[in-house]
Amino acid sequence: MTSRLLPPGFEKAVAILRQSSSVVVFTGAGISAESGIPTFRDGGGLWDQFPVEEFGQWAGLWQTALRRPEELARYLVVRLEPMACARPNAAHRAIAEMEKFAQVTVVTQNIDGLHQEAGSRRVLEIHGCLLRVVWVIDRKLKTELTRSDLAEVAAKVRQLLDAGRISFRHLLSVVRPLFGFGLRGWYRPDVVLFGDAMAEPEWSQAVRAASQCDVVLSVGTSGQVFPAATIPWLAKSRGATWIHVDPKESAGDIWLPARAGEILPALIEEAWGRL
Question: What is the mean pLDDT of residues 194-213?
């Protein structure tokens, strides 16, 4: 990104980051969209195709599985295939690079594990992670999945769709790595859906980090999902400067209207790369 294309506020953001010692990076679906994972709320997003009351809540998912397993199978393919193929992009890698220069806590609403894969060491997944499967009764870990595991499940679900009519029993048999019943009861992906409590202790740690940072850098988040959206506001209320990166949605003390994968590497390079 050349200097003439840098958005207004870029130099001010550079100066603030250069002086910071503690940064909370708050990320949403927009950063992972640049890795090929569809967003939920943009035009044509997942909630336009799959109603949130049916696919954004556990009760709705189970009812859909029982009554319309073909529709749930279609949703699983749309969700799992991009997640299986996703890799960290330049924005994820730039955030990981920040750890060389400041104390960084990544607070993410995303469930894709891309921040850890990029090298970030302190990541608080306040909505959980699809790559972890837990027992429903106590959220204890049952299995850690790989992207290859997700790809295999997605391929089997697609085969069912291609074969024609799907029964609940057939669908449950192929998604067994993600959902099922075992010695300790039901197990499912460790993700927070609408109506669920936030993931703990991650949420409490995120609130604490936001209360103590001097800069909050929000990236690719609409600010419409609560209580997650309160994180930047909490940091700002405690005296932190709020820098917001998003091509469309304005927010914060400094808004950088640009793609995260383009602006974040430039921001980190200008703030610290020449020191």
Answer: 96
